[in-house]
C-alpha cells in the first residue's frame, strides 16, 4: 500500500508545478491509450481474461515500471501496463454493453469517474491541503475491501459484493486526494509513479461504478 514520508521542508513551487504538469500530461496519454486498447478488445470480442492472469501480469508490469521509474524505459513500461489494463477492461465493458441498458450504464460510469476525479483533483490542487493523515485509514480500508471481495466471491453474496464496490468508490476517492496531496507536499517526486497511482485510482473507481450501476440498472424495469 502507498504510505509516503512527506518531506520535512516545503517543496519549491516550481518543482511541484513541473511534477503536476508532467503527471497530468502522461496520465492523459495513458488514459487515451487505455481507451484505445479497451475499444479494440470490445470490437474484437476478446474473452474476459482470468483474474489470476490479470493480477500476475499487472503486478509484474507494475514492479518493472517502478524499477524503471527514473529512466526513459519507464515510459514504455507505463504504456505497457496501462495498455494491458485497458485491454482487460474491453471484455468487461462488452458484457455490460450487452445488458438492456448497457450503453447508459457504461456512459454513466465513465461520466461519474471523470466527474469524481476532476472534482477531487481540483479541490486538492486549489486548496493545497495535506491529506497525508488519510494514509492509515485508506490502508485499513483496502485490506477490508479485499477480505470483503473474497467473502462475496466464495459465498456468492450479491449484497456484499455491492457493498464492497461502494467501499472501493470511497477508497479510490480518498486515494485521489491522498496521491494529489502527496505531489504537492513532497510525498511523491516522480511523475511516472504519480501517474501510475492516479491511473489505478481511476481504473478501480470506474470498475466499481460499473458494477454498482450494472446491479442497479441492468434490467428493463
SSE inventory with pairings:
Blueprint: H1 13-43, H2 51-67, H3 73-97, H4 102-127, H5 135-155, H6 158-185, H7 191-217
Helix pairs in contact: 1-3, 1-7, 2-3, 3-4, 3-7, 4-6, 4-7, 5-6, 6-7
Strands, total number:
0
- Helix/strand-derived category reads mainly alpha
Give the overall silhouette: globular
Q: Percentage of helical residues?
A: over 70%
In what range is the share of β-strand residues?
Answer: under 5%
Number of helices: 7
Describe this protein's structure.
By secondary structure, the chain is mostly helical. Helix 3 (73-97) runs antiparallel to helix 4, helix 5 packs antiparallel against helix 6 and helix 6 runs antiparallel to helix 7. The chain has one domain (13-217). Helix content is 79%, strand content 0%.
Short description:
With 221 residues, the chain is an all-alpha fold. The chain has helices at 13-43, 51-67, 73-97, 102-127, 135-155, 158-185, 191-217.
Amino acid at each position: 500500500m502507498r504510505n509516503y514520508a512527506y518531506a520535512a521542508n516545503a517543496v519549491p513551487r516550481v518543482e511541484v508545478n513541473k511534477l503536476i504538469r508532467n503527471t497530468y500530461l502522461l496520465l492523459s496519454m495513458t488514459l487515451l491509450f487505455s481507451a484505445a486498447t479497451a475499444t479494440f478488445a470490445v470490437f474484437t470480442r476478446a474473452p474476459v481474461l482470468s483474474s489470476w492472469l490479470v493480477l500476475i501480469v499487472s503486478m509484474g508490469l507494475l514492479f518493472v515500471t517502478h524499477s524503471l521509474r527514473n529512466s526513459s524505459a519507464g515510459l514504455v513500461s507505463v504504456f505497457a501496463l496501462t495498455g494491458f489494463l485497458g485491454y482487460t477492461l474491453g471484455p468487461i465493458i462488452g458484457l455490460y454493453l450487452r445488458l438492456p441498458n448497457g450503453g447508459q450504464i457504461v456512459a454513466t460510469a465513465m461520466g461519474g469517474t471523470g466527474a469524481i476525479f476532476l472534482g477531487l483533483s481540483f479541490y486538492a490542487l486549489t486548496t493545497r491541503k495535506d491529506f497525508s493523515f488519510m494514509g492509515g485509514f485508506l490502508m485499513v480500508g483496502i485490506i477490508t475491501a479485499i477480505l470483503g471481495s473474497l467473502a462475496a466471491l466464495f459465498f456468492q453474496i450479491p449484497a456484499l459484493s455491492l457493498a464492497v464496490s461502494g467501499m472501493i468508490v470511497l477508497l479510490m476517492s480518498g486515494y485521489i486526494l491522498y496521491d494529489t496531496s502527496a505531489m504537492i507536499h513532497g510525498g511523491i517526486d516522480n511523475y511516472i509513479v504519480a501517474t501510475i497511482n492516479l491511473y489505478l485510482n481511476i481504473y478501480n473507481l470506474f470498475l466499481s461504478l460499473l458494477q454498482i450501476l450494472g446491479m442497479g440498472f441492468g434490467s428493463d424495469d
